[in-house]
Design brief:
13 helices, 8-stranded mixed sheet, single chain, 351 residues, alpha/beta, Rossmann fold
Amino acid sequence: MRIPKRRTVILFLVGVLIALPLAGCLYESAASARDARRFPPPGTLVDVGGRRLHLICIGRGEPTVIFEPSGFSNSASFEAARSEVAGHTRVCSYDRMGAGWSDRGPTDVSAGMLADDLRRLQDNAALDPPFIIVTASIGGLTTELFARRYPDRVAGLIFADAVNSEMIPIANATFDRWQAVAACAAIAGAARVGLVRLLDPFALRASSSDAAARSAALMYGAKPWITLCSEVSNMRTSEQEFARAPALRADVPLIVLTAETTAGVIPSRLDVEPIAALSRLRKLLPLLRETHQHLAQRSTRGSWRMVPGSDHLIATSRPQAVVDAVLELLTQIRRAAQSRRLGGPWEYATN
């Protein structure tokens, strides 16, 4: 019996719709396996309760400086700034759950969960507090909540064009939650079938360096996009966590850096008007500077400054500005410790 032409076309289209995602999943799986072999974790995998977070520590001295990554960066990012600071004290960087070489976490991710992960990482890796924490982009939420929940573990804070809790209610009022969830589901789905690798949203393939290849391997898999989307989708939970948290310590040493331009907030190849959610995000960017200034005013030892020539990832575009901020806090903290005759337990680096 001859199958009608229309039915043949429909069956063909159904077959294509099934085959393409399957092929994409196989492509993504093979690419992820290849990347894992090519770029093994350079640091240590630390158990934080059934999951592992990846940690890199370099240098010697105290207090330890912890680099909290941005949404798309990882423990190996900001290498120039980390290496320079490591000449003066111990520097640690890590991958949040679902990022870099760390394991994936729960389906729903909030700032509070990430802050508690940072505490468990410190405990299980035997890192001695208090710490100077350098944070960037959405990592600012983790850092702020950590500093508010565990003030005794914080020696100082540096926010490098990082988001703080003042932006959460603004963002929640701007973005429809279900639209955000749908957009994230679409992005995560695209990552699962390898489309993010093909799109190259950060234009990393324009460089032939090993660092760019490593960044592409860590950023273009499905895991980081799924985790970041989960954090964005659960901003209302994060807002409630901040509402319940104590205020930021009023005398915490704090430097807030603001980028001169907003370049880099949105991946270059996704910064297009048809993407409605990103279009709304673009309208919020001018408010970042104001929230940065307000954050600096929360501490009697806070300061705010603009970094000339920088984009959103200041530690990459102007690493010396971040280094200078860290060394400034190191000097303040060490002098204060010496003046209180508490310097004995800390073995300060002198170089």
